[in-house]
Amino acid sequence: MDAPSQREVMAELGxxxxxxxxxxxxxxxxxxxxxxxxxxxxxxxxVFVLLAALAPLITPYDPYRRAGKPHVQPGVEHFLGTTRQGxxxxxxxxxxxxxxxxxxxxxxxxxxxxxLAVGISAAxxxxxxxEVLTFxxxxxxxxxxxxxxxxxxxxxxxASPTVIGLxxxxxxxxxxxxTIRTQTLALKTREFVLAAELMGExxxxxxxxxxxxxxxxxxxxxxxxxxxxxxxxxxxxEFIGLGSPNSVTWGTMLYWAMRxxxxxxxxxxxxxxPAIAIMLTGAALVMVNFAxxxxxxxxLAATRRVGPIRRFLKRRKRSAxxx
Amino acid sequence: MSSAGVSxxxxxxMREVDMSFRLGGLVGKQTTLxxxxxxxxxxxxxxxxxxxGESGSGKSTCARLLARVYEPASGEISFHGTDxxxxxxxxxxxxxxxxxxxxxxxxxxLNPTQSVAYILERPLRIHRxxxxxxxxxxxSEALLTQVGLHPAAEFMRRRPHELSGGQRQRVAIARALxxxxxxxxxxxxxxxxxxxxxxxxxxxxxxxxxxRTLASLYITHDIATARYFAEETAVMYAGxxxxxxxxxxxxxxxRHPYTQLLIEAVPNPRHKITGAAKRRAAxxxxxxxxxxxxxxxxxxxxxxxxxxxxxxxxxxxxxxxxARCHHL
Amino acid sequence: xxxxxxLEVRNLTVDYVGANAxxxxxxxxxxxxxxxxAFGLAGESGCGKSTVAFALARxxxxxxxxxxxxxxxxxxxxxxxxxxxxxxxxxSEVSFVFQSAMNALNPVIRVSEQIEDAIYAHHPRTxxxxxxxxAAELFELVGISPQxxxxxxxxxxxxxxxxxxIAMALALEPKLIIMDEPxxxxxxxxxxxxxxxxxxxxxxxxxxxxxITHDLGLMIEFCDRIGVMYAxxxxxxxxxxxxxxxxxxxxxxxxxxxxxxxTGPKVRLEGIAGAPPSLxxxxxxxxxxxxxxxxxxxxxxLAPELRPTTTGGEAACHLLG
Lengths: 323, 328, 321
Description:
The complex is a heterotrimer.
Chain A: H1 6-13, H2 20-23, H3 27-33, H4 36-58, H5 89-125, H6 127-142, H7 145-156, H8 161-172, H9 174-188, H10 191-198, H11 203-211, H12 216-239, H13 250-259, H14 268-296, H15 306-315
Helix pairs in contact in A: 4-5, 4-14, 5-6, 5-8, 5-9, 5-12, 5-13, 5-14, 6-9, 7-8, 8-12, 9-12, 10-11, 12-13, 12-14, 13-14
Chain B: E1 12-23, E2 31-43, E3 48-52, H1 59-66, E4 74-79, E5 82-83, H2 89-98, E6 99-102, H3 116-127, H4 133-146, H5 152-156, H6 165-177, E7 183-187, H7 195-211, E8 215-220, H8 223-229, E9 232-237, E10 240-246, H9 247-252, H10 257-265, H11 305-309, E11 315-318, E12 321-323
Parallel strand pairs in B: 3-8, 3-9, 6-7, 7-8
Antiparallel strand pairs in B: 1-2, 1-4, 4-5, 9-10, 10-12, 11-12
Helix pairs in contact in B: 3-6, 4-6, 6-7
Chain C: E1 7-17, E2 22-33, E3 38-42, H1 49-56, E4 64-73, E5 76-77, H2 83-93, E6 94-97, H3 101-104, H4 111-122, H5 128-141, H6 158-170, E7 176-180, H7 188-205, E8 208-213, H8 216-222, E9 225-230, E10 233-239, H9 240-245, H10 250-256, H11 297-301, E11 307-308, E12 314-315
Parallel strand pairs in C: 3-8, 3-9, 6-7, 7-8
Antiparallel strand pairs in C: 1-2, 1-4, 4-5, 9-10, 10-12, 11-12
Helix pairs in contact in C: 4-5, 5-6, 6-7
């Protein structure tokens, strides 16, 4: 029975040699760039970040001041209409994005860094250090996050986005810490770590140069998830009224829109833009995380070609071994 | 077989070493595993000692004790006469340079995220800090050439996943050599390599042993390679050293019943399996503090009451050849 | 042994579909397995022997893909089986023993249940008593006391867990058992026992075995015929006793010289210099030619084909004329 040549198989399955510029990138970058979901998510984030960065330059009106009549419909003068207080929605959206994204990223980054420090130390140093740190990790995981955040935030009264971000970082590091700890425990017993120890390498150098690079995809994945948490939780806190009335973020926009009963009065343009912006940001981060998952577990990349492979088999009256 | 530069005096020795590990288990169910019982052995420059045994024999534990990964429960390990357990600070760092280890898994003993250049540079920076950056590069490339990886500059840039198993093991050997050790502990260095590659690595280790008069410990479960590589072989069972002697004598004339069982079990293409042979395998006992007598007694055809009571002492059965059995 | 082969493999081709290229792991191999025969597949890492095993068992995982060739079990086209026919093929006609017994057994389910599950999966109307009796029978066959049926996998040693896997492989009385390095992770004494056991069971029940290992000595002791693979191709097939006494292919010869002997004179052995070629950069002509000490100019230009030899086997080498 004749077998198709390698070239014929490639043609039939749509496998093309990679572009030269792609071949020059490190392995993880190649996987990321060719992952459609990840790149799409990254594109959305890039647009949002760009708009947020340019906000002071492109907002048509001052987002903190009254710019027109209340609840003006979207039109040429006010691209997304105005709020109950007559402030321009579009300007608020841009300005709010600046604050929301910054706080979300910073909260995510801080949570990841705390989790990283705690997780690695607990696992690598073991013994009493591990017991004490794990206790704190477990406490942080077991305490119900949202009620705790609400209690903390309400003590502070009218918390600015930065304060909220800090509170989120302090309550959100547990998950990262636990994953990092597990990964470090697994890596710690690998022989190259023992070889480094027998070579006389200092402990901190082992942590930074031997262990950390082998967990980088976990750290990045953890950061993406922590950022999602940061952005969504921040919006949630402000939505229920714990934010500062003077700040403009997507969350406070939702709060004021609820106060103004925007949906009931037909002012959909006051509530939908910030809601969609939050959803899109969250979704974009999740899509980026899919790509990071593929880098962490390269076997996932093999499933990209299931469609063409099924057709290939069907044409030859063969069946797939696995679904 | 010995070359001119070989001295007869051992430089690294274990005397009556015991080692225990506490086995996990929740509250109340802990047992203490006796990984080693009364092990004595010596390593001599320019000569190799093979440590042969199956899983649970304690052979890897011996290597790790000699490398000072942990301390023995009792007994002494001495290097040039000094008790290794008492070393600390600078003296311990010097010991680490003098006693180097090669691991079994070529895929695990090199950091996958670092280049070969980094892997070789670190030990040089730690133990020979006087070297300049250029000298480090020079020494690294010379080492790679010595272990058979050339062009060296090409290999410096590579990461472990771009190397074959045999090449990785050669990098591991180069790393161990970079600190100019006196003792090389090779823990099953070829068992995870392809058959055709194993001899290249063993020959390399043999050449280095002779050229640099290294005292070598070669751990393996394959008694045939023990004969090929090492002048002396010691057989271990459940943490006890049951027979030791020149490799030729051990393979040609094994005296301990376990050694005989091992040799009979080695695949022999001149023999044909018919399914008729009597079953000889049994579980290797978990030796604890409460265990008594000879560990092999449970499965030994020669076992009698005395075997279950007392561990036999060493009996000399030939020139430099001893076995521990009541019924030789 | 009857004349007609149990399993016929013709031009089997397995590719690995990567992101940018397709690597051919198995390049059109042909061989037969006869009823009641132990056929060994020898070779080193990357030669494709495990890929062949998975392909024959219909267990090829992505990115692997069988792209060509045919596999026939007593005349039926195995690669075309689907649905119910495929389920019947897997385990009740051809079963598998993996390398790492620890991975094949579910650690949280009692062993008796695991064996019984295999039985129920193919004979759903079996009564619980009958299934249990069969499990006890299988335990006895592999030399484990039936009293331990209700233990969990971690309560057994490595060798015993592998025996349990063999018991499971026998549960439905298959015609062929594929064993991929079944004893590599075990100690040498246990290994000998298990191979003896498999041989005894094979003689008793008459199933065939496809035995894959890198340990040529063990393979010669156990197998009737042996196929040697290199870089995705079969380079020699011969009766087991001829592989070391009269090897026809230079690779087989070189492999034979890679095992230090236990007895006899001590000479320096060299193994084989270099490494198997990467599947994305195969040499022209014979794939072994860059490392072959006996290569002639034709070897570099033209790939040799498997042709019958004087010792009752086949080999792919230009030196054989």
